[in-house]
Predict the structure.
Amino acid sequence: MSAVKSPKKGSGQAVGVVGLGIMGGAFARHLRAAQFDVAGFDVAAKARAALVKIGGVAVLSSSEVAANTRILITSLPSLPAFEAALFGKDGVAAGARRGTIVIEASTLPLDVKEDARKRFAKTGVILLDCPISGTGAQAAVKDIVIYASGDKRAFAKCKAVFAGFARNAYYCGDFGAGSKLKFIANLLVTIHNLSTAEAFVLAERAGLDTELMYRVIKDGAGTSRMFEVRGPMMVKQNYLPATMKIDVYQKDIAIIKAFAEKLQCPTPLFSLSKRYYDKAYAGGLDKHDTGAVHAVLRREAGVKRRRGS
């Protein structure tokens, strides 16, 4: 691929996306809707084909994405995927030019991101730490927030791109501040998912209609964003398709745990919540949404599954 071709009525600004899964695929869709020219890569052919269907250009390596864009977003599920996509044989580093800005949106240990920032800086590539607050379902409707940290001038250059795929973007300060805020946000998500499941199981044991319970609680003081996002799947007792898989979220939980332990900070509610995600993972719900902690609590409470559900 020699260049990213501009579709009709396109903005002419090319943006790259490396990792076209639940989150990255949503980023690409919104950027195309905002008339950016999008070049993307994913190891899965199906994800690349989905990009082509919305008018993007699918390439065959992360290095090709970097060679054809000056701003690119990376959204990766694991440490091995991160290392391969950024610094592997055909990674971003192999194709990026001096001055390229990499918006790193994955949830990863901070020391890993800091090491990547230093490695890129040697060749004049700028890495921004920009984790996302929001689920895959929220990303699908552009209801996510970016916690950006790092080079402030680079952040300013990316404002139009951020606006293309997120509801809001905050500049949070020096590199790493974004990840720290993300860890705190995910700590709350972990607790709020479980508290939502607990409320649903109590409602069922009390003989309440869960659809009614969801509707009225959502409109009152007891609601939370996770109650609103994951409540509907708990009403249906169906945790597929997943917007955040239990097995992937185990990585996020481990990162938060290590972060808090390093700071010697007690996290009693988070620590208790973790047990239920572990039970969901061990109980065959690893590919289901994290809302599946509801199924774990239902089993413990002895609540029978509704007929036809």
